[in-house]
């Protein structure tokens, strides 16, 4: 026995030298190390530690929260001390506006990451669920993009929408929280135009929510397979996120506002207070009809200085709210139907130049209400105003 070397003696005792030299890591320690390695790779790729902020990529925000947790826990710092080539453990990257992760509960932490909290009995303390839950959810938010092999099929659609936006046939509107998304609709997300080419079959998530898988095409020739709820959240959180209106949607009007309705503006009917003899004589019949997406009162605030309003104050005699329609096309409908009643009036502007205002019509107010009703039920096509009978007639 005396002739045995140290190694042989340990072998006789059943002790593995390798095991002594390299202690086994617990599952939790392996997760912490793997998570920190992700942060190190982020530093190597971007040249800075991950930071908080709404303008940051969701993965960077995840890494920032994880790094704050690691820095705050002594056992994590000790475990990673020899695995920190960039000195990330000793430098605080939390700015004054960033919340202390140790003061956040589960829901607040998820909210800081921009992720909707899910009902669950367990918590996300000490990195336990950060990778398995939040990062998987983040991956769903972003969804990997790949080249769209049949993009030539969609290219003309994007080109047409661009033309429609320039001509005013389509418009952009802010995307409301939990607003609907339908197949064939266009959106603007992170500065890119997005087309929903397909909405898959609806299914129920593990949390009892309804969702669908979408095929989304981007105007740069890529596509992604993303969840409907994920696209909703991304559009709502993007301050520049927009819905592009569809010129063929309907109905044009509704008596009540539905959750998915998109308010497009207001039809306003004005009456001039001008002392022009012709206008004064027919004041109760002469009306200006327009459509605006802003505040009507602000629009007419400087009427007395604007030849469009006959260089006189005006009064609002009727308004109608619009939902899910294109304002430019609607205004053209009004002008087409009332064309026979457009007044031929020439006035001088503030500089003495002759001006012929448009959008003023010699028609009773109830005719406008009839037009609104016919537009609402889709029966306006083919009708025109007849000044002789003072009514709408079918051409």
Automatic annotation (TrEMBL):
Pfam families reported in the protein's UniProt record: MUG113
Domain of life: Bacteria
Boundaries of every Bacteriophage T5 Orf172 DNA-binding domain copy: 281-375
Entry protein name: Bacteriophage T5 Orf172 DNA-binding domain-containing protein
């Amino acid at each position: 026995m005396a002739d045995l070397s140290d190694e042989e003696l340990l072998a006789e005792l059943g002790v593995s030298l390798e095991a002594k030299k390299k202690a086994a890591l617990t599952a939790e320690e392996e997760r912490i190390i793997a998570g920190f390695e992700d942060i190190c790779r982020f530093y190597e790729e971007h040249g800075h530690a991950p930071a908080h902020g709404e303008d940051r990529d969701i993965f960077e925000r995840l890494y920032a929260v994880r790094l704050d947790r690691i820095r705050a826990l002594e056992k994590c710092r000790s475990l990673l001390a020899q695995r920190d080539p960039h000195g990330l453990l000793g430098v605080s990257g939390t700015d004054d506006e960033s919340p202390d992760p140790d003061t956040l509960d589960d829901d607040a932490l998820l909210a800081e990451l921009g992720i909707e909290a899910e009902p669950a009995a367990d918590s996300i303390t000490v990195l336990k669920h950060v990778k398995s839950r939040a990062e998987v959810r983040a991956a769903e938010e972003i969804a990997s993009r790949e080249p769209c092999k049949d993009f030539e099929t969609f290219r003309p659609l994007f080109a047409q929408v661009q033309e429609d936006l320039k001509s005013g046939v389509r418009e952009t509107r802010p995307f409301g929280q939990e607003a609907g998304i339908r197949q064939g609709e266009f959106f603007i997300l992170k500065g890119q135009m997005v087309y929903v080419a397909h909405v898959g079959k609806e299914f129920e998530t593990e949390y009892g929510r309804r969702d669908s898988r979408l095929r989304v095409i981007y105007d740069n020739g890529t596509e992604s397979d993303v969840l409907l709820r994920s696209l909703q959240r991304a559009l709502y959180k993007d301050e520049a996120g927009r819905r592009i209106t569809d010129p063929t949607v309907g109905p044009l009007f509704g008596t009540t506002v539905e959750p998915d309705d998109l308010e497009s503006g207001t039809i306003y009917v004005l009456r001039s207070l001008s002392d022009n003899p012709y206008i004064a004589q027919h004041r109760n019949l002469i009306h200006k009809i327009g459509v605006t997406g802003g505040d009507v009162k602000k629009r007419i605030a400087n009427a007395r200085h604007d030849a469009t309003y006959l260089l006189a104050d005006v009064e609002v005699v009727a308004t109608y709210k619009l939902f899910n329609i294109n304002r430019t096309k609607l205004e053209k409908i009004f002008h087409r139907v009332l064309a026979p009643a457009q007044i031929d009036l020439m006035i001088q502007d503030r500089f003495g130049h002759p001006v012929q205002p448009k959008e003023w019509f010699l028609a009773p107010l109830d005719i406008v209400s009839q037009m609104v009703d016919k537009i609402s039920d889709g029966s306006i096509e083919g009708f025109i105003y007849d000044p002789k009978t003072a009514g709408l007639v079918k051409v």
